[in-house]
TrEMBL record:
InterPro entries per record: DUF8196 (IPR058509), Restrct_endonuc-II-like (IPR011335)
Name of protein: DUF8196 domain-containing protein
Organism annotation: Candidatus Kentrum sp. MB
Key words of the record: Coiled coil
Pfam families for this protein: DUF8196 (PF26618)
All copies of domain DUF8196, residue ranges: 83-190
Coiled-coil ranges from the UniProt annotation: 28-62
Length: 210
């Protein structure tokens, strides 16, 4: 009796030691209801856990796909379309993805780097973001500010930046253009410039070059 009350305090036993049939039936019924409720709660918990696991799995798939950025991009249609745009629209002669430069113990990574010599004499930095935010825009500004330090051989070139995003809010669109960077979208594995014809980019470096 004492043990039962310890593990089931919500079901008080009668003060006398002998239970009547009515009391026993009531107790059994209560325990049955409690057991059914516990099973129902456990079933609901399992279903909720399965749904959470599925969401985590899907999120991991998305992050994995977007996180690899040019791992998948170079294998699909986006990178060829990007190269075509950089060559035809911006007249870039040299284009390469995933550039890592190390100088004096410091490093800088570029998602895509392109440049042209001769009369064009320009360089472009492309940064790809799954979801563009202000931190991504500030990162591009830091890259452009450190350009001469890591790529002194292109110091004489006029350069500009392109931010390519899978997802970009209207606020980030406006901020990107306000900071002077081209905006591009990756849609259906295609790289599409999303800046109006009237857009005037912010040039860094040799701004006298035309």
């Amino acid at each position: 009796k004492r043990y039962f009350q310890q593990i089931h305090p919500e079901y008080p036993l009668p003060e006398h030691n002998i239970m009547t049939d009515k009391e026993l039936k009531k107790l059994v019924a209560s325990l049955t209801i409690s057991h059914k409720e516990a099973k129902a709660e456990m079933k609901e918990l399992r279903a909720s856990q399965q749904e959470t696991n599925q969401q985590i799995k899907e999120l991991g798939r998305q992050i994995g796909g977007l996180g690899r950025k040019f791992g998948g991009l170079t294998e699909g249609m986006a990178y060829p379309s990007m190269k075509k745009l950089l060559r035809e629209h911006f007249r870039m002669e040299f284009i390469v993805p995933r550039v890592e430069i190390t100088r004096h113990g410091q490093s800088m990574e570029l998602d895509v780097f392109g440049y042209s010599n001769g009369s064009t004499n320009q360089a472009v930095v492309v940064e790809v973001k799954s979801r563009l935010d202000e931190a991504g825009i500030e990162q591009m500004e830091r890259i452009m500010a450190r350009f001469d330090q890591f790529l002194p051989e292109h110091r004489d070139k006029r350069r500009f930046g392109i931010l390519a995003a899978v997802d970009c809010s209207p606020e980030m669109e406006a901020l990107t253009r306000q900071r002077g960077f081209y905006l591009a979208r990756i849609q259906d594995e295609l790289f599409v410039l999303d800046s109006p014809e009237s857009f005037q980019p912010r040039y860094f470096g040799n701004i006298e070059t035309t």
